[in-house]
Amino acid sequence: MSLPPLVEPAAELTVDEVRRYSRHLIIPDFGMSGQKRLKNAKVLCVGAGGLGSPALLYLAAAGVGTLGIVEFDTVDESNLQRQIIHGQSDIGKSKAQSAKESVLEANPYVDVVLHEDRLDSSNVMELFAQYDLIVDGTDNFATRYLVNDACVLLNKPYIWGSIYRFDGQASVFWAEHGPCYRCLYPEPPPPGMVPSCAEGGVLGVLCASIGSIQVNEAIKMLTGMGDPLLGRLMIYDALEMTYRQVKVRKDPECAVCGKNPTVTELIDYEAFCGVVSEEAQEAALGSTITPRQLKEWMDAGENIHVIDVREPNEYEIVSIPGAVLVPKNEFLMGNALEGLPQDKRIVLHCKTGVRSAEVLAVLKSAGFQDAVHVGGGVIGWVNQIEPEKPVY
Ligand SMILES: Nc1ncnc2c1ncn2[C@@H]1O[C@H](COP(=O)(O)OP(=O)(O)OP(=O)(O)O)[C@@H](O)[C@H]1O
């Protein structure tokens, strides 16, 4: 299926621009008209992280006239393995500012507009209304559903990508002409079921594979070239080196773009995606200790049994002295309960406190009423107790 171009061509290219974009201009199907359309285009990239890095750099290099960047975070050392728009000297700096500098270095003719804010229900509509197309480079479900619903309500195309470990996915959603994100994924996964890249890791170069597909689709949509990835889900396996395609159909029952939509305005996306499950929140209430409290119990020789519920490779990077590794899934499948000491107080921890709260809920319903978990997890422990150890 081909679609008409999203934008009209800009009046003219300057002599400098003709030189810069000459390798585009000589592609017969691209030509002057395609390049002028890019010059006139306004694209918003949500997130200047793993996917946003290559996406922004290639959108800029391609000559997209106006590039908006929404990002609230600062550059962390652990970002640099994949977020190539930032460098060593940017650590601690605003990601939006750092991304802007790299974009202008790649192409000074781009007009960069920064929105140094977290995208949420209060700002999304006003922001998206200013752009022709949205590229999503974020890493969490709440933002994806927010971006999707805002795009449906404003009738904007949404270019989506997702990465985890060695696997990537990409698609184009546009309710007026095809399915939306909710047609593919009507409900978010239960909290904790799908780990983030911060929990499960990601191969850095995967960002380039998926981010460049997103830019490819953006260029096609803006200029009207080729068949957009609309109604198709691209699934990439970096280890097998395979690209598979799956058809995505518009769901007539879709909550936001179906015949009788139930979502007609923005909702509370954090609550919808249940960032931490209700059971876990309840279990953690009054049963969360600080890393300092744990250290005091250890020093006082309290009768405790500390369990680290992360994965073995995380344990290898850094761990709390004396903690025994039993990955979360062992508890969720019920295998780990039998081996637990009955005469000691169980103290759980994970990386930041999300997974340990889930396991805490399992232990409480199995009768371990005095079990607790460490808020902030091993990262909190390193920050407060052993700052010489690495964080990840
Ligand atoms: N609602 C939002 N508004 C603006 N930016 C967002 C929003 N949600 C996520 N982001 C940004 O999207 C980017 C996603 O990048 P990435 O997936 O590489 O994760 P990260 O948060 O940088 O790294 P990690 O999770 O490993 O610490 C991040 O820079 C994050 O700050």
Please give a handful of descriptors for the protein shown.
392 residues, alpha/beta, Rossmann fold, Oxidized Rhodanese, domain 1, 2 domains, eight-stranded mixed sheet, 35% helix, binds adenosine-5'-triphosphate, nucleotidyltransferase activity, Ubiquitin-activating_enz
Provide structural commentary.
This protein is an alpha/beta fold and 392 residues long. The chain has two domains: 15-273, Rossmann fold, CATH 3.40.50; 278-384, Rhodanese-like domain (Oxidized Rhodanese, domain 1). 35% of the residues lie in helices and 16% in strands. The chain contains 17 helices and 13 strands. The chain has helices at residues 15-20, 22-25, 31-40, 52-62, 95-106, 124-128, 141-154, 181-184, 197-200, 206-223, 269-272, 278-284, 291-299, 312-317, 328-332, 354-365, 377-384; strands at residues 42-46, 66-70, 111-115, 133-136, 158-164, 167-173, 232-237, 242-247, 288-289, 304-308, 324-325, 345-349, 372-374. The strands form two sheets. It has an eight-stranded mixed sheet, with helices on both faces. Strands 9-13-12-10-11 form a five-stranded parallel sheet. The longest helix is centred in the middle third of the chain and has 18 residues, at 206-223. The mean pLDDT is 95. Adenosine-5'-triphosphate (ATP) binds next to helix 9.
